[in-house]
Amino acid sequence: MKDKLQELQQIALIEIEKTQGLEELEQIKIKYLGRKGELNTIKKGIKDLSNEEKPVIGGLVNKISNTIESKVEEKHTIFYKESIAKKLEKETIDITLPGVTSPQGKLHPLTSTINEITGIFAKMGFSLVENKNSPEVETEYYNFDSLNFPPDHPAKDMQDTFYTKIAPFVLLRSQTSNSQIREMEQKAPPLRVISPGRVYRAESVSSRKNNLFHQVEGFLVDKEVTFSDLKGVLNEFTREFFGQQRPTRFRTSYFPFTEPSVEIDVQCIICCGKGCRTCSGSGWLEILGAGMIDPNVLKNVNIDPEQYSGFAFGMGVERLAMLKFAINDIRLFFNNDLRFLKQF
Amino acid sequence: MLVSLEWLSSFVDISDLTPQEIAHGLTMSGLEVEEVEELGCKFTNIVVAEILNCKPHPNADKLQLVEVFNGKDKMEVICGAKNIEAGQLIPYASIGSAVLDRKSGEAFVLKPVKIRGVESQGMLCSADELGLNPSDYQEEDGILILNRIFDNLALGQDVKEVLEIADDTVLHVAPTANRGDEMSIIGIAREVAAIFDKELNHVDLEYTNTADLTTDINLEIKDEDCCKYYTLAILKDINIKKSPKWMINRLNASGIRSISNVVDITNYVMLEYGQPLHAFDSDKINSNYICVRRANDEEKIVTLDETERKLSAETVLIASDKEPIALGGVMGGFTTEIDENTKNVALESAYFTPVTNRRSSRSVGFRTDSCARFERGVDIQKVRPALVRAMQLLTELADAKVCDIIETGSDELENLEITLRFSQVKRILGIEISNNKCVEILEKLGFELLGKNDFSAKLLVPSHRINDVTREIDLIEEIARINGYDKIEPTLPQKTLFSETSEETSAINKINSIFIGKGFFEVVTTSLVGEPLLNSVGMTYDESKAVKVDNPQSDEYTMLRQNIISNIIQVVKYNFDHGQKDAWIYEVGKTFHFNGNPEQKNADVSEKRVLAGALTGNIKSGSWHDSFVPDFYTLKGTIETVFNELNLSKRVGYIPCKDISYLHPGRTAQIKLLGKGTPVIGYIGEIHPDIKDKCKFLQPVYLFELDLETIIENIPFMVAKYKELPQYPAVTRDTAFIIPKSVSNQNIMKSVKKSVSKDIFKDVDIFDVYEGKNIPENSKSVAYRITMQDSSTTLTDERVNQEMDKVRNGLQKAFSEINFRE
């Protein structure tokens, strides 16, 4: 009886091992462990055995039953895992297909450049000019006279101006500096204002020049403002905009509305100072005009130059964007070719 | 302006400075040096040699074998020139010497070469191979025959020596508009002396009358606004000839070609002193009266360039009692021109005032080197010294007999004294510069110290700076730039100031992120437009409100735009024409309308910010995933998002609109802001088929334009308020019906809202619209979902059904032709 049972266990284990799938396993489970299964049949016969044999065989049957059960369990787990794996396999997707995004547009490179510039100055406490103080159609007074341009001075030739048919003294502003006067006329120092905007010049359109472009003008007026502050603020700007390591130089220049005046160059970003076509061999790129606000300009807006001082600066947005993005034709900004706009 | 360093070195010692150091010093202190150009001899080792004999090349018809002798050795050279023969002295370049390429002008080193089997030991040079202009030396092409031009040649002599080619370096400088004094070699020498702490070596010459001759010419300045001081020197028995080589070299280095000694001297003195001069052939003046006056409208003059100029009252003239003889301060007249037969010269040196000179040159429409100086302001006290310098040169180089200087007007200046408070230097610059250093710098620049104490100094402005240095601040700039901007330490302002963000800025930032997030590209278009653009997109403009340009460069840019839609259509067209058919774009820009009353300080033009854009094509098309077809409602949805984000969605109304010329009359909405005044704030619609055809668009284009100004003015201040989350579930019910197409969604919604009890109404949405198959013509099938919720209890079916009955009854009453589908 014992031997028979041992044999039965062995056969059962082999059969379980050989099963190919869940269904087959279920059948074998019924065959051995089912209500009418072999072990149950044997169990039913135990009552006919001798008293000595009863516990021995009974124990052995239970043990074999447990062994087979755990073997079935083990095999079941394997089959289950396999079947899940198969199911998941079937569900496989091609993860190399491109992701689905909502279409993404972009800001125009001029707008993003203006935002970057004004953002840097905002960190230094500069507020954006009020729109009403930055008109593009302007009078000679705000575009020239109040900014200390002497009448009929060749300095006016620096900027070929579009005049309008509205009146001989109404023009399209040639610089954003008109906003400086208008802001100062209306507000009292301390003032820190940044004024981006569109300006016009009577030039023929070419790859280097357009008849309109954008400037960012800024100024600061307070007590005890010095040329040192001008250098500090504009150094911070160039470091943020062109990178911490980029050398700058401040050289003397002339603008009617500032005294002393300065032009600020950064080391050429193309050749790093060796000299190339972009920087006409000088190794430097002119990026900013600035200076201490001329006392006459302060007087024109009723600010006492003995009490207050200030500095002003201006830069060309297209020029900075062209340098930054290596763009070689200013007209690209205004054609708005989508293949261009998508690059920034 | 071109500055010869060789010339400069005669006024200031620059022997210890490289050209680059000088260029850097000038650039940093305000005279920008745009280029440093090395002049002079680019060839090397070319010597005078004699042609001993010429014989034909054995293997080439056009070449000769030439035997030359350089005083030591005989060499055989192959040459293709036709103008050579035995006995000539020519420039000979041996192997290893540098010669210029005739085409590129670049120097190259001669290497041994075999031509058709025969080796050439060097080459014979033409003028251009030496960097010279051939026609300056001989008429025919070919080798430069030295013995025809030069005497006393020695075999083996360096040709550079023969040609007197000077090594020189030229600085290309760009004086700023305020610095007339830097338009001269002496002026720049003064700058260099100040920057590098050197002495300026220049003393004006004295005039001595050597010939004891007198003149009877009378001078008169008729208009003192034009000319303050006019001098004339009369020189007799002049010998017109070539200028000496040193002068030609200096003029050439300055970009001026030599003409004759008299003309060259006037140019030379102009460059040296910055004072333009003009020489008349005094025998051609035919009068003993010369005046400075304004022209009248009928007058004409033929100028030196043989061009007839029409004159006006703005034009300043030099005239005899018979005729105009020169455009004062601009250009001389042709009738009194110096020529090879000139014997007697009247040499003019004068002070023409900047403003009138500028107007005068503008009135005749051209400028000269003289104008560039007069309009910046020349040094009135150098008018006479410059004339004396020219007289000296004419005596030396043209054998002139000096007759006399006659003059009218005055070169006297009122003393301009400025007090410099030393404390102001630090107040403006932020750094300490010692009092002595300040004064020292100013003195170097020609300012005269009149007095000084611990707090201030009084300085006299020199005549050459009278035009640009008039105030204390101007002195401070002089100190700053000569001391060096690089010595000023950068600091940051110590005070904290808050950077304010305006309502407008934050609204525009929101708008940008909405459009970009939805796939639109921002565009920046021109605000200068013209009829060609407007015509190409079928648009017109309001003439009475137009801001037109008085001096347009072309008909493409004649006025400021009155709308942005034209630009937007143009951008769509540009992209369409370049194969980009899916364009979702927008712009925030200004439009311009003239209101009619300009004043000195107010142009009276409304500059309104406008938001406009277009949507055409499917920017998602070509995606492998799913697709949707963008249409009017895609664009409308974007605009709704904008209003939502600006807290204005409840105030916006869309009204069907048929009269916008560029939009489809059946597919256009006027957008109004409900409430005070119900202003129209814009339009949205499909492009009008006429414009679509005109632009050759093959697909619908949806456009919108919004008045951003009014929108921003109306943005309410709002902070979201939390509402208790509902405790009881919401119930949704659908209703579907067929209804005439003419009934708008808006009216159906209104009816539904009115029907449902206010306390439980939550929402109504349209979720299906269908027209076409199985639906009668002129009808549509629509379906609405109604959401109800009671905040105090769970709604019963019975209650909900009651409400739905009310909805259907309400609709039935409002729209008799309704046909429910349940």
- SS summary, helix count of chain A: 12
Estimate percent helicity of chain B: 25-40%
Uncertain runs of chain A are none
> What is the residue-averaged pLDDT of chain A?
91
Total count of strands of chain A? 10
Estimate what percentage of residues of chain B fall within beta strands: 25-35%
Mean pLDDT score of chain B, rounded? 92
Oligomer: heterodimer
CATH topology of the largest domain in chain A: BirA Bifunctional Protein, domain 2
- CATH topology descriptor of the largest domain in chain B: BirA Bifunctional Protein, domain 2
Give the neighbour order of strands across the main sheet of chain B.
26-29-30-34-33-32-31
CATH superfamily of the largest domain in chain B: Bira Bifunctional Protein, Domain 2
Net shape of chain B = elongated
Number of helices of chain B: 22
Radius of gyration based on Cα positions of chain A: 43 Å
Structure explained in plain terms:
The complex is a heterodimer of chains A (344) and B (822). Chain A is an alpha+beta fold and 344 residues long. Chain A folds into two domains: 2-90; 109-341, BirA Bifunctional Protein, domain 2. Chain A is built from twelve helices and ten strands. Chain A has helices spanning 2-18, 22-33, 38-46, 53-90, 109-123, 140-143, 178-186, 227-242, 295-300, 317-325, 332-335, 338-341; strands at 127-128, 137-139, 162-163, 170-172, 191-200, 212-222, 248-255, 258-267, 284-293, 309-316. Chain B has 822 residues and is α+β, with helices and mostly antiparallel strands. Helix content of chain B is 26%, strand content 28%. In chain B, strand 24 (448-452) and strand 25 form a beta hairpin. The longest helix of chain B is centred in the C-terminal third of the chain and has 18 residues, at 797-814. Classes of the chains: A alpha+beta (344), B alpha+beta (822). Chains A and B meet through helix 5, strand 1, strand 2, strand 3 and strand 5 of A and strand 2, helix 9, helix 12, helix 14 and helix 15 of B.
